Amino acid sequence: MSDSIDYGKLMHRAMRGLIHEVLTDVAQNGLPGDHHFFITFDTHHPEVDIADWLTDRYPGEMTVVMQNWYDDLDVREDGFSVTLNFGDAPERLNIPFDSIRTFVDPSVEFGLRFESQDDEDGDDDPTSPDDGPEADFEDAPEEQHDAEVVSLDRFRK
Q: By CB count within 10 A, which of 20, 33, 100, 106 is most buried?
């Protein structure tokens, strides 16, 4: 039994569950209305499976958009696979939920950001003071924030 509740770990699990549920619904029913997603993920995560040229072009992280054209969305417990179009070249991507850094639906101004990509067992590095949340909890030190709602301004055109 632990001496404390690991809220960061619990929040990450809940946020990944939300992404899983949303993508499962989209796989079954398609994107409703104006909904679309910007999904940023760590291209060096060991379970990410994308074309070598994409890893070379996007070292570190990559943002994909699921909006007008995507195909064969397959959602699993640990992640999802989807075929996206890159300049008229369809590519299959396998993205584990653990590799996701941000998940944004700008149509409804909703976004999630994962502050750390460490495993579920802990060993989290503290986040940079500049990475603090939009709204802070008074009793929680800033470096303990592992997950938060992300501002959508960086995704606006």
A: 100
